């Protein structure tokens, strides 16, 4: 029995995009293809995927998993050490709140009124997430719902970014770019593919010092991650555009890149609300889409045609975009409708 990629994604709980990524980096390549060119996965492929996912639960990077599977005799001690380190950080964070609550309890039991700072610190730790997410959302998101394995994975990735920074690893290195792609894949997965959740996470990360203290994502880590991911995308675009076009993109790509998530979230909401591609509010969204696209690639239609080709031929460009096939189809229809109205 062989499974197509969509079937394997459904059965394994992964996304098709993640399986494409595993194939592209040589971590899990399908053993066969159908006559129509579809990927087909057999029993051995699925067994390998099981190993990959088991190691991911230990917080091991995809690059390290590839190395480990290529050498089955490798010692697992280092992997376990990574998990212990990540779990220790998680316990430490929980301990901060526990200690604060214990102090408050002791003071109250002794008839002492805790000072204002003590109450504020406790409230900050307890209510930070409630400011940005509903109770239902917090229950559904694994890193907020207390999923220990998920939190350990994130902690391990933060630790690897810090190791790269400390070692002077350039953001242009394959290792840094691969880790940044892995980060974005995981972020898509753990936000349930909802770009609005991601927008709120970014806002919370920017405004809440207590969150940075908890998750260890310092401004330095954030800047390194963003630049590594940007360079990974630019490297793919470079194969399809002229040197002059690439120079323009390289100079302008970063200027407004932070505006994309909110716009993508609004398009997603329009689809969820049942908006038609030719509705006036959707046409306004498409004008904003064109404006953002031109901000990094200029206004030459030929350049944008090359960029569309890049997206068609480079599935890894979809990582971290939160754009589904449904959204791509809707945007295409909306752009066509807008041209008819112009």
UniProtKB/TrEMBL annotation:
Keywords: DNA-binding
Ranges of residues in domain HTH merR-type: 2-71
The keyword Cell cycle is assigned to this record: no
PROSITE patterns linked to this entry: HTH_MERR_1, HTH_MERR_2
A Pfam entry, by short name: TipAS
Record-linked SMART domains: HTH_MERR
SUPFAM superfamilies in the record: Putative DNA-binding domain (SSF46955)
Domain of life according to the entry: Bacteria
Keyword DNA-binding found: yes
Protein name: MerR family transcriptional regulator
Organism of origin: Massilia rubra
